[in-house]
Amino acid sequence: MGTERGFVFSRRAALGALLASVALAGCGGGDKAPSQEAIEAAKAGGAVEKPVLKLGFIKLTDMAPLAIAKEKGFFAEEGLNVTLEPQANWKVLLDGVIGGQLDGAHMLAGQPIAATIGYGTKAELIAPLSLDLNGNAITVSNKVWDMVKGDLKRSADGKPVHPISASVLQPVVKSFAQQGKPFNMGMVFPVSTHNYELRYWLAAGGLNPGYYTPGDIKGTTSADVQLSVTPPPQMPATLEAGTIEGYCVGEPWNQAAVQKKIGVPIVTDDEIWHDNPEKVFSIRKDFAEKYPGTTAAMLRAIIKAQQWLDADGGKNRAEAVKILSQPNYVGADEAVIAASMTGKFTFEPGDTRDAPGFNIFFDKFAGYPYYSDAIWYLTQMRRWGQIPADHPDQWYFDQAKAVYRPDLYLSAAKQLADKGVIPAAAIPETDGFRGEQDGFIDGITYDGKQPNAYLAKFKIGLKQGQKVTASGVTGK
């Protein structure tokens, strides 16, 4: 198991749930005590109330904790009979959890957040566990790669120096515009990490990815680059058809483009934001309250799977690749999945590099659902107009606390640590915030305790006092 940690930890994990419950006190958020239901749920370690469960996922390698929990018997150890069911797209998956057809799911981090604030749909979902760090990339077509590769800085071995800034696309976008053609790129869902990472990368390179307005739900107002939604498994075919010139997606669909020789990953999400949070495990709030023992059991099983995936420097990853390649899970070739899942990442034929942290499931407190992660997603929703007007910092804290539930995570993790299943050192002692974070491609530092100050740092994006209306962006 990896031992590198992103912050100071303590073996006094028993304090964790209490610390998390008052996590926002230092940010003016301590005036709302957790409900009695939340306290009881956080203590849950009792009998499983609902042993037969159906969980949803999308065919991506970062659903691995669910597949491993199933295949290695971790769900069964916790008294759970779990069916894992692939979903057609993120909207179908979300509707399945909200409607109760699914008991929980591998979910985009932005989905339970957006549902809570009523963007797109309104529902009370929670995220008691983060599934992983990193795992995405941005791929461009061979045509676009040929247009930019000659201008890239090269290392002594002749390979491009990474990270590659989106500024290299500026002349390409200009060329398309001169021909009267839009420059189109794909992402997987409007509130996906992929949408915000792609937008972040483009904006850091001086390209405006556009704003969402009530009259423009596609988010293309004032855009230099037009973004559209494509389900992950369909990304390579959409690129090959020429409908889009690039996309941001999770694996194995960047490596699939390399294998098919139709595109080149130009940057990974770890290069855009080092050790960024990715998917979450999400359930309905009322499910956690009605079935606290079941909720705790699911979390324990998934945490055990996360530890298995990162154990001993990734010794289990080859077995994980075989499991994920099965058609009932990701269903891609083993070689394609292994290209990013086993400590390597291939940008193009002949350019395979070490990438030991491309997928992190357990190390660096990957499973802990930090409030600051939720707040980052909210800042990007505001930056691009999905949140149409200003809100005080307190509003961001309140929304994060409503969705992310470190109390539930810490309770389950503590139960495992008490039994020696996971090391106590793997459980953070924290107020729910990561602290100031750097590692962004534009050099901007993020502090989750100051969301509005963070938004003010961006050259491209909505500013304080600006609003989005059906006619566009207003205000200075």
Automatic annotation (TrEMBL):
<comment type="similarity">
    <text>Belongs to the CmpA/NrtA family.</text>
</comment>
<dbReference type="GO" id="GO:0012505">
    <property type="term" value="C:endomembrane system"/>
</dbReference>
<protein>
    <submittedName>
        <fullName>ABC transporter substrate-binding protein</fullName>
    </submittedName>
</protein>
<dbReference type="Pfam" id="PF13379">
    <property type="entry name" value="NMT1_2"/>
</dbReference>
<keyword id="KW-0997">Cell inner membrane</keyword>
<dbReference type="InterPro" id="IPR044527">
    <property type="entry name" value="NrtA/CpmA_ABC-bd_dom"/>
</dbReference>
<keyword id="KW-0732">Signal</keyword>
<keyword id="KW-0472">Membrane</keyword>
<feature type="signal peptide">
    <location>
        <begin position="1"/>
        <end position="25"/>
    </location>
</feature>
<keyword id="KW-0813">Transport</keyword>
<dbReference type="InterPro" id="IPR006311">
    <property type="entry name" value="TAT_signal"/>
</dbReference>
<keyword id="KW-1003">Cell membrane</keyword>
